[in-house]
Structure formats: structure tokens, C-alpha cells
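Example S7 (C-alpha cells).
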């Protein structure tokens, strides 16, 4: 038997293969193999229990049949992976130390780690629609979630072999531009002299413009007129709108660059403005959309709420809206990218919108036999301040993302300064950048994204607990072992003896669980499954390191322990990178 990179996957295959031609089994049997509580071996397959129940057979009898067939087949070498029946019909598997050691020797590079995941996303074309801020406004703290969750999900999907298109569906078209253009003209605001305050000033202009249109009906009429001119392609207004988009995106890009995020496409709402008419036409022809009170709407009669509260796709005044654009966007992505799945990383508060959008698309595609892409709303909760309400600045404004990032880096600098004052300035700055950015990112990804969470500087910059500094420190600790021993951390050693101490074995098994953590994160599109795993791994490593001395005289023992260190480093760094964190040589 070869050493299996992904024993979970391979054993499952063996079980399926064997039961295929085994009497009393049929194709409704699934092994359901999982990493188990260490008391019950290393892996447990409990699929026989549900199969027996459903086919009204005795599970123990089926398990015995299966074991007998496995023995006969010789597909699993019991010297490497032993197996037995337990309880009413579980099958427990246990890795031998020889297997674990060989596995460690085999998994040496990041690309081998990739083979550990066997996700259904492989080779699929996936659009991840994330970040997607609105132009003419600065990014605020609310945008961090979509940006970092979206980036991490994109990296995870790519890691498992998907073809990912990162698309920033910015809000760059809409009624707000009438007001903004009016205000810019009134103030003679210069859109050609741009600095890092320009976007903030535009945001201010928009606010004062809105106030003005509320008090003054002439200004309101002017704003409406500017909007109509813009929509009709008036060159002056189009020119201004283009400059506003450019100024906005320049600032967004600065932040994306800091966060290590880049997009394959930036197809904002404006891109779809000339792709709207066929949507109305086709939805009316398919009898999915209907007129109601002068608007064009889609009712979902089967739905308890949307039967009365329809999805409005054309407003009473004839204008398109957010819904229309999203429908056109899906049609475009299907046609241009042959997309298999679209993942929207957007705040939970937009759940109704996406639910109605997806229901409409379901109906639309069921009228033709075109393959429908899977549509998934990856929703997330709110970042809260100490008071349990959405986080705000003292003056009640949303916290700007740029300010938040700068503060994180400054605070991290103070931590570095106090821990390691002797480092050269340049290095201190870089460490502060990596810790600061890592901290805001990690605190977010470490939560189940569905929940709200309370933002706390102390918690996220702490070296204890499930935090970025703790994990980044674990990485530097391993790096320093190799630095001090003057050995390449990409260590391969043929001569390592088999692992044998409990802490070595625990660490090897934990490392083997990396693939499952990735697969779980991907199957639920929740990066926190990966971060919990990395945190546990760092803990198991720490126990190993405090118990088993690495640099010992016995060359064979030293070699296998260095190998464990090297593989832990590989998994930790790869995992952190999938969450979007950079790692450090020392800190
Ligand atoms: N611009 C929107 C907002 O700020 C988010 C867009 C999300 N993507 C989408 N295809 N609807 O709320």
C-alpha cells in the first residue's frame, strides 16, 4: 500500500469500492468517515448505522461483512492502518506510528497540502462577489468583513483547485450622483486636484447636498435635473462622474493593497446600466414579472412573506434599481464566464434581497433548460462597539477603515517596541504592519461569520488566546529553531526514525487533520473552521515543543522532531496565508 496523502478520502473510496459488489449493501450506503474522538481510534465510519436502519438490517452483521471483505481485499494494510468494529456497527481506524511517519515524510510542500482537500469546487468556475463598496464614500469598518471574508473564501477555493473570479461589484451608479454633481457644481469643487482628502470631501459634499435638497425645492429640482442629464449621457456630467469613480477607486485600491486583496474584475453597477431592458422583457414574457401599482414586480406566492412583499425590479418612475442590476449581473456572469457558482459575501441585512433574487432566478431558469448556477449568499453579522451597538466614532460616524488600519499598525508597533526594542527600525515597522493587519483580519475570520462580534483592541492584539499575534508568534518560534540550528526549514529527512512519544503522535495526527479543516471551511464557506484548527495545532505544537527536546544528540530522533517542526510550519503558514495573513521570520 502506498502512503496516502489523504487517508480519509482514500479509505472512503476503499469502503465504497468494496461495498459496491457486496451482498446486503447497495448504493445508498455512504461510509461517513470522520476524524474521531481519540478514544475511538483516529477515524470513525458510522455510515453503516444509518444504512442498516433504513434498509432494516442488523448493523453489526453488516459491519462484520464489511470487515471480512476488507481483510480479503488487501486494500488497507493493517500494519499501517488498523481497523475494527466497535459498538453496534461503527468501524474505527487507527494509524500506526509507521504510517504517520511516512505521511510526514511525504507531505513536504504546499502543493502536496493541496492534495489533502477533495472539494467539489475543483475545476469549477466561481465568481466571488465581495467588498463591493459604493463610490463617493470612504470605506468604513463595515467593509472590512466582506473584504476579508471574501478574500479568504477566494483563497480557499483556489487552494482546492477552483477557478475563482474575484469581482468587485461597486455601487457606482444611482440617484446619489444627481445630488453630488449638483453640490460639486454649486461649490465649484475642483475634481482635478486630488489628494488623500478628496474622497472625504466628496462624502461631505454629498451630505451637505442632501441636506440642501431637503430644505430647498429648487436644489432638489436641480439635483434631479443633473441626474437626468447624467443618465442621458450629458458629456459634462459623465466626465464628472468618471472622475468621482476614479478618485473613489484610487482610495479603495490603496486599502486593498495594504490588505493584500486584488480583484480580477471591477464591474460595478454602472457597467450593467445598458443591459437592463432585456431583463424586463424576458421576465414579462416568461410571466414571472407583472405590473403592480405602476411598478414592475415579481411575487413569490409560495413564500410566507414575499407573497405580499414583492421583489421590485422597476420602480414606479420607470427607473431600474439594485434588484434589476443584480439580475442583469447574473445573466452577464452566466454568459461571459459560464459560471458554476456565484458567492455573494454581503451583510446579513441584505438577506431578503438575495432570497428574492435567487427565487426569481430559479423561476427564470426553470423556464429554459439552461444550466442554472448555484447562488450562495455568504452572510455575516455586524461589528459592535463596547456598548453592544454597531461600532461608531465618538461623533457617531462609522469608523473609517483607513483610520482603523492605521491605528492597528500603530498599536502593534507599541507592542513590538516593548517586546523587542533592539530590532532595526525598518524591521520593527514591518512587524507592526504584519501584526496590525493580521490582528484586524484574524479577529474577524476567527468568528463564525453569522454572529456579530465586539471589537476589542486588547483582545485582538493579545499574545494569548486565539489571536493573530499568538499564531504569528508560533510561526516565528519554529522559524527560530531552524535559524539557530542553521537548517533549512523546508526540511526533508529520509533518516528520521518512526515517531513514538505521545506528544509526537498527537502532533502528527493533528497535522493530518488539516485537509478536514479546509474541507469543512469550504463546505460551509466559513473560514473560522480553519482558524480554530490552526489555533489548536499551535497548542498541540506547543505541548510537543515543551515536552520533547528537538535538538538532541540522537540523530534519528532529532531528525524526526525537526521534521515535525517543519511540517507544522508548513501547515501553519499555509493556513494563515489562506486566511490572508502574512507571516514573519521573527518578532
Ligand atoms: N454595494 C452594495 C452595498 O454597499 C453591496 C453589493 C453587493 N453585491 C451585489 N451583487 N449585490 O450594500
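Recovered sequence:
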Amino acid at each position: 500500500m502506498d502512503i496516502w496523502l489523504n487517508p480519509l478520502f482514500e479509505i472512503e473510496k476503499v469502503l465504497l469500492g468494496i461495498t459496491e459488489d457486496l451482498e446486503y449493501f447497495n448504493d445508498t450506503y455512504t461510509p461517513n468517515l470522520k476524524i474521531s474522538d481519540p478514544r475511538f481510534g483516529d477515524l470513525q465510519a458510522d455510515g453503516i448505522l444509518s444504512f442498516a436502519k433504513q434498509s432494516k438490517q442488523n448493523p453489526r452483521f453488516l459491519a462484520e461483512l464489511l470487515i471480512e471483505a476488507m481483510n480479503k481485499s488487501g486494500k488497507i494494510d493493517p500494519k499501517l492502518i488498523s481497523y475494527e468494529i466497535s459498538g453496534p456497527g461503527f468501524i474505527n481506524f487507527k494509524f500506526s506510528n509507521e504510517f504517520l511517519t511516512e505521511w510526514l515524510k511525504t507531505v513536504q510542500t504546499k502543493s502536496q497540502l493541496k492534495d489533502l482537500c477533495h472539494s467539489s469546487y475543483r475545476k469549477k468556475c466561481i465568481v466571488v462577489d465581495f467588498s463591493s463598496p459604493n463610490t463617493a464614500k470612504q470605506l468604513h469598518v463595515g467593509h472590512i468583513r466582506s473584504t476579508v471574508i471574501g478574500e479568504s473564501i477566494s483563497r480557499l477555493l483556489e487552494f482546492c483547485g477552483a477557478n475563482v473570479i474575484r469581482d468587485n461589484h461597486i455601487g457606482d451608479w444611482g440617484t446619489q450622483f444627481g445630488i453630488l454633481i449638483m453640490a460639486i457644481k454649486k461649490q465649484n469643487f475642483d475634481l482635478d486636484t486630488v489628494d488623500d482628502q478628496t474622497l472625504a470631501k466628496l462624502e461631505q459634499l454629498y451630505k451637505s447636498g442632501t441636506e440642501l435638497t431637503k430644505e430647498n425645492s429648487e436644489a432638489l429640482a436641480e439635483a434631479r435635473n443633473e441626474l437626468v442629464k447624467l443618465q442621458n449621457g450629458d458629456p459634462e456630467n459623465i466626465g464628472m462622474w468618471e472622475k468621482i469613480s476614479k478618485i473613489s477607486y484610487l482610495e479603495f485600491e490603496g486599502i486593498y493593497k495594504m490588505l493584500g486583496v486584488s480583484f480580477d474584475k471591477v464591474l460595478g453597477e454602472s457597467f450593467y446600466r445598458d443591459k437592463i431592458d432585456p431583463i424586463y422583457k424576458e421576465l414579462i414574457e416568461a410571466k414571472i414579472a407583472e405590473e403592480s401599482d405602476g411598478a414592475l414586480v415579481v411575487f413569490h406566492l409560495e413564500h410566507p412573506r414575499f407573497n405580499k412583499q414583492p421583489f421590485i425590479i422597476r420602480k414606479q418612475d420607470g427607473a431600474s434599481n439594485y434588484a434589476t442590476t443584480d439580475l442583469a449581473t447574473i445573466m452577464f456572469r452566466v454568459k461571459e464566464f459560464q459560471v458554476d457558482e456565484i458567492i455573494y459575501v454581503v451583510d446579513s441585512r441584505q438577506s431578503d434581497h438575495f432570497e428574492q433574487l435567487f427565487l426569481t432566478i430559479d423561476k427564470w431558469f426553470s423556464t429554459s433548460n439552461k444550466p442554472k448556477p448555484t447562488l450562495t449568499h455568504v452572510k455575516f453579522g455586524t461589528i459592535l462597539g463596547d456598548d453592544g451597538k454597531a461600532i461608531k466614532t465618538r461623533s457617531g460616524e462609522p469608523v473609517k477603515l483607513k483610520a482603523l488600519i492605521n491605528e492597528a499598525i500603530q498599536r502593534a508597533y507599541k507592542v513590538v517596541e516593548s517586546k523587542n526594542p533592539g530590532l532595526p527600525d525598518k524591521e520593527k515597522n514591518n512587524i507592526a504592519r504584519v501584526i496590525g493587519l493580521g490582528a484586524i483580519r484574524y479577529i474577524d475570520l476567527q468568528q463564525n461569520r453569522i454572529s456579530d462580534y465586539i471589537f476589542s483592541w486588547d483582545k485582538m492584539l493579545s499574545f494569548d488566546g486565539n489571536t493573530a499575534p499568538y499564531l504569528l508568534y508560533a510561526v516565528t518560534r519554529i522559524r527560530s529553531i531552524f535559524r539557530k540550528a542553521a537548517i533549512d526549514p523546508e526540511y526533508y529527512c529520509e533518516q528520521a526514525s518512526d515517531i513514538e512519544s505521545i506528544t509526537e503522535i498527537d502532533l502528527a495526527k493533528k497535522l493530518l487533520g488539516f485537509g478536514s479543516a479546509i474541507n469543512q471551511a469550504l463546505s460551509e464557506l466559513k473560514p473560522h473552521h480553519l482558524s480554530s484548527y490552526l489555533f489548536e495545532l499551535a497548542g498541540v505544537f506547543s505541548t510537543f515543543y515543551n515536552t520533547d527536546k528537538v535538538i538532541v544528540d540522537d540523530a534519528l530522533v532529532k531528525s524526526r522532531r525537526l521534521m515535525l517542526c517543519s511540517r507544522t510550519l508548513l501547515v501553519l503558514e499555509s493556513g494563515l496565508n489562506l486566511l490572508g495573513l502574512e507571516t514573519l521570520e521573527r518578532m
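Notes on this example. The chain has 21 helices and 13 strands.
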